[in-house]
Amino acid sequence: MKLGRAIAVLAALLLVTAACGGSNGTVRPTPFATPGSALNPTPGSSSSSPSASPSSGTPSAGTSSDLAIDGEHAIAVSVPDPNKALSYAATDDALYRPQDSGGWDQIGSWDPSRSLLVDPTNQNVLYSGGHPGCAVGGPAIPLQKSIDGGNTWSTLLTGQNVRPMIVDPANPQVIYGERCSLAISVNGGQTWTDYAMTPSFNVTDMSLVGTTLYVLITSEGGTSRIKTIDVSDPSHASLGDDLHEFWGGGTLIASTDRLVIGEPHGIDVSTDGGKTWTFSRAGLETVTVSVNALAQPIQKDELSRKFGIYALAVDPRDASHLMAGTIRGLYESKDGGKTWSRVMQIDEVQIDHLAFAQGGTLLYVVTDGAVTVLHNP
Length: 377
Description:
Layout: E1 26-27, E2 64-66, E3 68-69, E4 72-73, E5 76-78, E6 88-90, E7 94-98, E8 104-109, E9 115-118, E10 126-129, E11 143-146, E12 154-156, E13 163-167, E14 175-179, E15 181-185, E16 193-195, E17 201-209, E18 212-219, E19 223-230, E20 238-247, E21 251-254, E22 259-263, E23 266-270, E24 278-280, H1 300-305, E25 309-315, E26 318-326, E27 329-333, E28 341-342, E29 351-357, E30 362-367, E31 370-375
Antiparallel strand pairs: 1-17, 2-31, 3-4, 5-6, 6-7, 7-8, 9-10, 10-11, 11-12, 13-14, 14-15, 15-16, 17-18, 18-19, 19-20, 21-22, 22-23, 23-24, 25-26, 26-27, 27-28, 29-30, 30-31
């Protein structure tokens, strides 16, 4: 939540936090809202029980529906564990938690200056925070924590300007976040240690696999790199080498068997921990650029139509089934990222966040001002 977002260098530098929990030991940031949006829950707000959108039976494969709460469009969701159900959703002005009966409890208001992180091992534990733009600065933003599902909140004084991104499921006291640089807490957000990354680069996305943290960093000039961080001892993280470099903002998702990057030129996949890479834009030609902009100038017609891959998700049922949210619509790959085709049930709109849920039988597709649910994708 995915997360601050910056658009620069000819409209291609959307910095995505993204997406959802992965499979095969993967942990992804679970941004509650579209990039640049977040939560500011109101402690002690009253609870109500609006009804969810009506449904009948089990939707057939590939069908879609809008997510609505008491007649209002949901605009953001949080799914900390893709094998389980959605845990939180928001409309324009309120945060909700689903009831077992199918209704919703309102637990707070929503402020787009923050992001929400949910502990996947205990979904009553929430973190809410953010920071001003890395290049522009601004008033400090406090980090807040709730241990009762958002009903009450406390301020973590040393977490100022931290955007929380990942709770380690193996040790939920360990939290990974960023305040432009990498920030790690080993005591549930009470204190934080900053790790300097490459000068002039800011952290824009990350993914955790076991004791390896993959971090995407992007410079103001538009160059992005993937770095590895050894977090076998998270209190003394060890910065590793650069694995890959590309032009423009991007998003990444990692699992034990593959590392996938979505970037302006297409999709990069590694199956050996980043030692070697396979590139493809087959099927993505209309939403990506035809050249590596680090080596060649982008064609004028491609600049004018805009481009970008802003979100990735991996199906918990099948690690070779990938979804990509782009500048114009949703695309899927059934062969591990080699080829892609558009999912016609989703309109040709910019997709900012993707989240599989209920073991892969649902996919939440977050666009600007709406959430669409794709059933049995």
